Amino acid sequence: MKKFIQTLKNIWSIDELRNKILFTLLLVFIYRFGSYIVLPGIDPNKLDALGESTKGGMLGLLDAFVGGAFSKASIFALGIMPYISASIFMQLVTILVPQMAKIQKEGESGRKKINQWTRYLTVIVTAFQAAAYIGYLKSPSMAGAIIPAFSTYFWFSTVVILTVGTLFVMWLGEKITDKGLGNGTSIIIMVGILARLPQAFGQEWSARFTSGAGGILFMLIEVVLLLAIIMGLIMLVQGTRRVPVNYAKQIVGNKQLGGARNFLPLKVNASGVMPIIFAQAILFLPTLFSPGGTASWTKYFTDHTNLGYMLVYTIAVIAFTFLYTALIFNPKQMADDLKRNNGFIPGVKPGQPTADYIGTIMDRITLPGAVLLAFVGILPGIIQLVFGMQESFSTFFGGTSLLIMVGVVLDTLQQIETQLLMRQYDGLMTGNNRLQGRQAVTSGM
What we know:
This protein is mainly alpha-helical. The chain has two domains: 14-195, Preprotein translocase SecY subunit (Orthogonal Bundle); 198-397, Preprotein translocase SecY subunit, CATH 1.10.3370. The chain is built from 19 helices and five strands. It has helices at 2-13, 15-34, 48-53, 57-65, 81-96, 98-104, 108-137, 151-179, 184-194, 197-210, 213-238, 274-284, 299-302, 307-328, 331-340, 352-387, 391-394, 399-422, 441-444, and strands spanning 240-247, 250-252, 255-257, 261-267, 343-344. The strands form two sheets. It has a three-stranded antiparallel β-sheet. A two-stranded antiparallel ribbon has the order 2-3. A hairpin with a 2-residue loop joins strand 2 and strand 3. Helix 11 (213-238) packs across helix 18.
């Protein structure tokens, strides 16, 4: 405990790190404050139907990512998700289209071009999603929340405000990345998810407290189980297979270069949260053919406690894990980079044999990683069935929410540790147990 307090003092004593933390907290406060500002023309006292309709499916997932702003009809109702969608599309395009891949390899100028195109695409995506959101607000169950005197201008003003709101949130994320701590987009998503935790915990506590003395014991077991799941998820996020790599010696003048032995880290979960997001999106599509979810077969695509849903979801996550890993992982490029830097894997010839060797290893570690990722995805449903807990609280026991939170926290802590080590302070971890940062959510997505 004494060492932890000293570490906090060291963090606060570094002016640059302290300013970054305060700047990040300020922008996060602005984002959360804006999440409670209701759109013009909406009566906030009549939004109960909107909150009830966003408890499951993709709407519930979107509402969780934006910290409940979607169900509050806030000016930040769409949050930063249109920017995430545009980033996903641009990332896939740079992988599949050779011309875009060439632009990406141009260095800083290429990165700026792609970022600018992503912003333009964000405006288009936001406008379409805003129009869809207006149609959703005008549905029979929610139309009563729109003030009649404002209905004439409601469509135009809402599209403009939602688009500007998303662009402002995107700007906040970029400012956090530039002048704050961590990846701004990832932090905004994590803050939106964490914003619902106190309410979910309070609901679960009330339910357990009213159930009798045994309910308190169950609550303690649930908290311990949540901590155990988080520890296991950290192992999944940071798990790597280290492939030994040797570098040939080179004599340049009187100096000897190379000759070192290193490792090539291959992540067990190289695809991040993308397979879970893709699987949830695919499972949501069939429900569009059953308005209101009245058909009996929709439980296989919406009810995460249904065994059929778990089976379909598991197969989808495993399939998307292999697919997305194949898209983002290029063993041929890795083999060429090793050869260019005079590196080689002991016992394996450089070139194509090295690429085949790396690809084989990646295939072997992707399967257990995919199975574990699918298990994390269905954990909320399993936990809810076993313990009978509230649905809002069970979502924090796995799935996309917990995976994003763990990844962002690890990445932020790794940046803090780097700042400490640069100034000769002890890091957050000692010895060989250094924190390994996770790639930013926007990059992984």
